[in-house]
Amino acid sequence: LHPTYARMPVTIFEHMSGLARELGAINLGQGFPDGAPPQALLEALARASAERSHQYPPMAGFPELRKAVAGFYERTQGLELTPENVIVTSGATEAVASAILTVVSQGDEVLLFAPAYDAYAPLVRRAGGVPVFLALQAPDWRYERSAIEAAITPRTRALVLNDPLNPTGTVASPEDLAMIAGVCRTHDLFAICDEVWENVRFDGRAHASLLAQPGMAERALKIGSAGKIFGATGWKVGWIVGAPEVAAVVARAHQFLTFTTPPMLQFAVAEALDEAAIAKACTASWEQTRAVLLEGLDREGFVTLPSAATWFSCIDLPASGIPLDDRTFSERAVREALVTSIPLSSLWEGDHTPTHIARLCHCKPAPMLEDAISRLARWR
Ligand code: GLN
């Protein structure tokens, strides 16, 4: 057995959701909405299921979905794309794996900003690469050109930019994006852009893709997720956008990971992407759940870090009067308060690990959020 996996624990998300299931806790750990996805998406699924083939779709995805993704990004982010720019994957994690396998060769160094989603480093290592972590600093999690350049060596091949950033909920500024693109051009780096939270933004906060920066179209792969846009995380429909000649190589990696993605899901997502109102309504509903969580936490004296995106809010434990490190907090809160959270340090490798922050998921019904907040407040 490969020692990487033989020794590896299950992901923090599965660990915490497993405890939530076992203990009957309110699960504000792993990110997923509690209710059904939009009715229009379910109707599109029923139609596709009744009327379309149930056999293998084309390996790179149905032209209908590739076209819908291109159109969605043209309307929402001003990108000029054709279906040849898009490869459909079975979720964004598969997209990340395909992108890393495409870009990273033996011995290549890959810059990862910490906090980093926990799939990146193991996938870089399995591709033969070496993850190099660059710590961002709470509470702003700013990107510093000098720190990035100091980490670059002749072996550096790529960087991974998760923007908006999970777990912090922060969004790169236009200046950040211009700076990071400049670093990529100067040092001939490839950018893997995990933008699955691109549509989960609040307070009117804008998001732009690193792929749209000058000179980046040929050296960036942008990853998106229908699960995040429509709140249907179990569907596992994602995609990768890149220059057609790069996307064609990504497809070679994808063909031996999952090969394809269920046809009815692809058709339903294509229809939903074409109806701008569906994605907008999802974002609007999460703006409300976010307010419920933030207001409730504030009322009970919990201190949250600034954020403007994702389904998550982070609480500062010591500032909230909780004298526990994040892992102890999460392990005890699920058992004693029956509320599940994610310790931020579980998404961190390398130096300067903060251990005072826990992540809570807000895309849940208001009564569930209120119940979780009062449980935490009583227990604290
Ligand atoms: N992206 C999800 C989160 O951050 C987890 C996804 C997973 O568990 N595979 O909560």
Automatic annotation (TrEMBL):
The answer to keyword Transcription regulation applying to this record is no
Q: What is its EC number?
A: 2.6.1.1
Q: Which GO terms describe its cellular component?
A: cytoplasm
Organism source for this protein?
Novosphingobium taihuense
Matching SUPFAM superfamilies: PLP-dependent transferases
Q: How does it assemble?
A: Homodimer.
List, for all copies, the residue spans of the domain called Aminotransferase class I/classII large: 26-341
Reaction(s) catalysed by this chain's protein: L-aspartate + 2-oxoglutarate = oxaloacetate + L-glutamate
Keywords for this entry? Aminotransferase, Pyridoxal phosphate, Transferase
User: This protein is called what?
Assistant: aspartate transaminase
Which domain of life does this protein belong to? Answer: Bacteria
Q: Which GO terms describe its molecular function?
A: kynurenine-oxoglutarate transaminase activity; L-aspartate:2-oxoglutarate aminotransferase activity; pyridoxal phosphate binding
The Swiss-Prot or TrEMBL record lists the needed cofactor(s) as: pyridoxal 5'-phosphate
